[in-house]
Structures are given as structure tokens and as C-alpha cells.
Specification:
globular, three-stranded antiparallel beta sheet, Glycosyltransferase, mainly alpha, about 425 residues
Length: about 425
Amino acid sequence: MSQIQEMIKPAAAMLDTYPVVTTKQKIKQWIKTCVPGMTPEKAERYSWPQALLAMGLLQAYEQTKDKTALSSVFSYLRRWKNSGYPISHVDHVMNGSVALWTEEILTREKREDAESLEALWICREGADICAGWIKAAKKTADGILAYRSQHPDWLFADTLGMLCPFACRYGVQKQDKELLNLGIRQLELFFQKGMDEKTGLPYHGYDEKIGMKYGIIGWGRACGWMLLGLSQSILWISEQPAGAEQAEQSAACPSSRSVTREGCNRLLLLQQQLLDSVFAWQRPDGGFSWQLQAQEGHRDTSAEGMIGYSAFLAAERAAVQRSEQWIPALSRLAAIMQTSIQKGYVTDCSGECKGFAEYPQVYGTYPWGSGSALAFLAGKRFKEESKDRAEGSFCPVTGQFRSNSLAGISGEQDEKTWEESNMRPEI
């Protein structure tokens, strides 16, 4: 675990300080306040980069029990609360996933110290505020959330990873069928309207009103966001409270049963389709390019981390019957990613995308690369070190072994590896 623990300290420091606003940037922002008609940009302190980084730290804590990882998330959540739980975009809702996961850890470990009890209260309040914001937010004609209010008909792949896992987890834990339905529907609609039929890969987004697809096909991080949305949503749905399904049956409520069991089955099929399409473009060196089809382009550790973590969740929890197919691909991916870790810092991460067709070719160390890489490598490393400790299915979130509640529900299984299946489409 030495490499994972080495990654924790820089990640925790980044969670405390990102974004760092330089003196030059402060001067530029001040000038904008003095010019009529110009609006200075505010530093986003509680958005998806921080949330993704916090989730990586939580995954690392699950495997290492490193106090630095958990305490840094506590501090982040406290700052979030002290700032009034700011939510104005879908990006910010991802903090709800951090809150629910932290709450689950605290409840499972039965922590009763003052810091933990405060964190538990913040988690519950923050999650409820995120849920309330989603319910009150304006929906598209299809009944889902757009990425930005100024473009109410534009749907981005990013939204699937930022919104859907929270909606599904909150929906299951709080028995909120409205959010659960929304999370599932948001995922399914993108597969209906935002995909390239030939490659099976996503466009960056689409216009719901006119049906136009936008951005490039196979942007690595778009694939990562979609897979993260699918894999975490499936995981949370499958972890519904014991006896919940029986209670629904006794109440003679088939529609509710459909949302949980049948909805999960549908997502499993979509997950398998997308994973097959994505891993058909794994590079000979084991990595993924910033655009998957650009095999000679720059690698992107943020795409690699999100894809790897999502595939790990699928292999170890939901699609366990196909686990042999994932092992060589994930091992090759982990090996190449480790070459991009320098003294705990994750490099080779592409810069922030500014919109459709705006993919700056700038690479360095960013929260979205560090968080996703930490989540993937921590989970995979722990699994490798723990494989002989117990029999049965491994839950990558809690680090526990138990029976697989979804075994056998995803239909026929193809035991061929991606290398054997020759699935890469001709383009």
C-alpha cells in the first residue's frame, strides 16, 4: 500500500487548496469588477473537481484506513457546510455523493467522537439539500436535468457521473423513488440519443430539442463520466437496504420493484455494451488516449482512472461472472498509470474542458486525474492483496467480501477477452 499512501498526502493537500488563485488572477478579477458589463469569475471551491478528489480519498481510506484521507474529507465537508452548501449547477450535486459515502463509513464504523458526529450531521443535511435542489431544478422536456440553465436543451455526458450516482444512492437509501427514477432515466436517455452507432462510443453531448449530437466521439473523459455514472449507480441500487424488496412485494407495488430490479438489469446491459466499446480502444501500452480513437495521441490519466475505476466496480460487484475478462485489461491499465505517478502526484492529466469541442491539449496534475487514479489504484491494489483472505464477492467500496446480490441477472456472459474478441470497429 506504500504507493497509495504516498498518493494520499498530495491529494489531501489539493483538496484543501484547489483552486489556487494567484496574485495575477486576483488582479485580473479586480479589474473586471471595475469594468461595466464584465463579470469576474468566482473560484469554484465546492464543485466536481473537489468532489471527485474527495471520492478518491474515501476509496483510499476504505482500503488503507489512513486517517489523513478521512480527516481531509471531513474538513472539506465542514467548509462546504460553513459556505452554506452552495449549489447552482449539476456540478455541485456531486458533493452529495461524497456526503452519502462519508455517512455510510461513519455509520458502519459506529464512530461517536465529536468530529465524527459533526461530520455525520453535515453529511445528512448536505445530502438532503442536494436532493431538494435536484427536485426543484428545471427539467427538460424528457424530464431530466440539463448541464447548464443557459442551454436548457443541451445534455452532457459529464452529468451522468456527477448526478446519477447521487440520485440513485439517495433514492435507495432514503426510499425516494422520484430521485431513483430520475437517475436511471438520465442514464438511459443518453444511450438512446447521445451515442455513435458505429463505434458504440458517446458524443460529448446532444441537443434534446433538435436531436443534434455535439462534440467529438470518444472523448476519454466523457466515456469515463458515463461509466462512472453507470457503475456507481448500479452499485448503490444493488446495495438497497435488506428487506426493502420484500416490503415492496408485500405492499403489492410492482412499479417500485421495477425501478430497483428491472432498472438495474437495464443499466447492467448498457454498462456491458459501453465497457466492450471502450476497451476495444485500449492502447497497446495499456492506457487510453484523451480521445479513445486517437491511438497516437496523448494519454489522459483522468480518463484512464475513471474508466479503470468504473470497470473495477463492474468486475468486482455487478458483472462478476465476466471478471476473468477484466483482469488482464485492468492490470495493463494500472501498470501504465503507475508510470505517471511522481512522488505521489498524478501527472499526464488533460486540462479542464470548456465546452463542446474545447479540449485543451494541456497536461499536468489536476484533481480529476488524482481523484480518479487514486480510486482505481487503491481499490485494485487492495483486491490483489486481499484475494486469498476470503471467498465470495468483494465489495470495492467497503472492502468486504460477501455474496453477490446481482449474480445471474445480466443475461448470457461472453468469456472472451477483448483481445480475443476482436471487437474494435472499423472507422
